Amino acid sequence: MADGKKYFRVEKGMLQRLIKERADKIVDERIQSETERLHRELESERERLFGEKGKRRGRREELERAVDRESAIYRKHSRAPKPEESEDWFVTYSDIITLLLTLFVVIFAWSDFDQERFETVKQSINKDLLKKEENTSFMRLQNDLQRVFNDYNIRKEVTVSMAPRGVEIEFASSSLYDAGSADIKGATTALLADIRETIREFDYEDYLVEVEGHTDDVPISTDRYPSNWELSSARAANIVKFFIAGGVDPERLRVAGYADVRPKYPNVNDAGEPIPANRAANRRVVIYIKRGDNLPPDAPY
Questions:
Q1: Are 144 and 194 in contact (CB under 8 A)?
Q2: 150 lies in the same domain as 106
Q3: How many CA atoms lie within 13 A of 75 on its CB side?
Q4: Is residue 3 included in any domain, yes or no?
Q5: Is residue 298 part of a domain?
Q6: What are phi and psi of 261, to 5 degrees?
Q7: pTM for the whole structure
Q8: 5 inside domain
Q9: Cα 170 from chain centroid?
Q10: For residues 110 and 105, what is the distance between their CA atoms, to the nearest angstrom?
């Protein structure tokens, strides 16, 4: 420059840091110097008053005070914040619990309870969250009934499956009754007895057994069964009576006869011609084992 002097440009923040560092260093040096001076004076005074014994004793006390002062200085000049224990995990845990609670509230709030979907959700929770494989009560019942049917080798005449209402057993009417009759065939009583025993051993606390009778659209008119309504109801009622005779609690049993108003398949084609295979499939008895939300309060569990 013109006057021969050199200038340096320093940022304000950097200058402040330099000044602070220098001030801290000066303060530390001054504290150390003052501490040493006081220590020498104290040692000299103790030696004069108490001799060698007082000197040793005073040195120990002074060292203790010096340690306390150094600790205080360190705490004063330390700028590192004290770490605090984090509790972030608790927020995540609370969210998971809330979501699970909401899931079960939604499930039980469904007006039309879907037992099949409930069993699937329950098994998924056990497998994915609780890390365990588990068959639910209704799934175990389905497996037990399937083993019974396998022993009798009648797969074409009876099926068992998990349905929205629970476990569903469907019989072809020809396997249980003669045409136009509601009397149970003697050849199937052993099978019904095994089904009855499996239901009696079912470990679910609150369940219902509902038996439905269905016919085809061919009218019937006899002294005993004036219409298909009486025939379908009588067929279902005889199954229920058979279960009661074997020890199934009557409080858990229901009977329904639907005649031909709930066919699985059309009884006739578009031209009005009968379809024999469909009519045979529509003649059936269905046994549901399902959750019993409407059991009387005093019903034995």
A1: no
A2: no
A3: 7
A4: no
A5: no
A6: -85, -10
A7: 0.56
A8: no
A9: 31
A10: 9
